[in-house]
Amino acid sequence: MSLARDLGAEAFDEATIDDETRSVNRIVEQVLAAIAPIHTQTPAEIRAARERGEGPLPALQISPRAKTRSIPGPDGPIPLRIFEPAAPRGVYLHIHGGGWVLGAAHQQDPLLESIADRCSLAVVSVDYRLAPEHPYPAGPDDCEAAASWLVRHAKSEFGSDRLLIGGESAGAHLSAVTLVRMRDRHGFRAFAGANLVFGCYDLGLTPSARRWGDRNLVLSTPIMDWFADHFVAAERRRDPDVSPIHADLAGLPPALFTVGTLDPLLDDSLFMHARWLASGNRSDLALYPGCIHGFTAFPNRAGRDAHERQLGFLAERAAAP
Predict the structure, then answer these.
(1) Residue from 239, 277, 34 nearest 137 by CA
(2) DSSP label at 196?
């Protein structure tokens, strides 16, 4: 039986939180309490530690199957990391998370390899430019360029022009921004699906994010402010190109929103799911009681369940007429 809940009071009832999820949350909170929080460090320090395998996250697992290449971008080449199964049914444009400041395409090889193999999709992850060295609009510009390149070249490069898009956290945000840009700037509405995992869609912060406070369960209000301050000036944060929750969302593809109820970004997914539906699009919402930001990376039942749900959605959208 799936741990995911539909939108309803039961999803937010503490009694529905399973013991394994509670245990994971306690461990995460204890580990994070013992180290300096993100917002007290520099981006360069955090990035270097991650590459060395230091910090709270497991050591990187680099797949020998990954291929890399570069495509032209608005301000220089954009690196892509590619996993290609035999005879792919489509292409999944993946955009990594990290608050627009951290992360890289090579830091989630096991996830991307699984999607390629289980869904028969060529997976293309874009190494967009990061803030604060490259603030808005550099990252969104690179993601738009990668999507535009796939529209022109997916068929010749991968044998299929069926496109899907998605990502986690900031990657979900950038996926939504990219969908709106591709519709408005390129007239392209043919993405078959959007896999949007605990994204931030309002950089001015939704109530759940603003009211969260200092408790560090991967994210806190100070940490979210730190990310946003590096990425974009405060006066731009209601711009629909920065906060897509304010955008016209009509004509966008079916989407799956995944989020835990103990994620400061909970309201982002709840509100964006509602706006997606109200704009005339199909939207599925998978709520995981008691799960925190980034929970899909944990090897527990909730993380596995969410991963399987996303694989099912991507496979369904890849095969849909």
Answers:
(1) 239
(2) E
Please name the fold of domain 9-319.
Answer: Rossmann fold (3.40.50)
pTM of the model: 0.98
Summarised one tens digit per residue, pLDDT across range 142-191 is 999 999 999 999 999 999 999 999 999 999 999 999 999 999 999 999 99
Q: Of 120, 125, 169, 269, which residue is the catalytic one?
A: 169
* Distance in Å from the first CA to the final CA of the chain: 29
Summarised one tens digit per residue, pLDDT across range 242-289 is: 999 999 999 999 999 999 999 999 999 999 999 999 999 999 999 999
Active site (annotated) includes residue 269: no
Integer Cα distance of 246 and 17 in angstroms:
32
- For the record, the structure tokens of 306 come out as 């969410």
Rounded CA separation 100/105 (Å): 13
3-state SS class at 85: coil
Q: Look up 293 and say whether it is catalytic.
A: yes
Could you confirm whether 175 is annotated as catalytic?
A: no
pLDDT of residue 321: 81
Residue located via tokens 């390129």:
186
* Residue of 173, 230, 293, 307 with catalytic role: 293
Matching residue, tokens 């990290």 = 98
**Distance from C-alpha of 159 to C-alpha of 101, rounded to nearest angstrom:** 33
Greatest C-alpha distance within the chain: 52
Q: Residues for the chain: how many in total?
A: 321
Triad 212, 213, 215: Cα angle to 5°:
95
- List 263, 267, 268, 305, catalytic entry: 263
| Domain residue spans of the chain | 9-319
What count of Cα atoms within 13 Å lies in the side-chain half-sphere of residue 110? 9
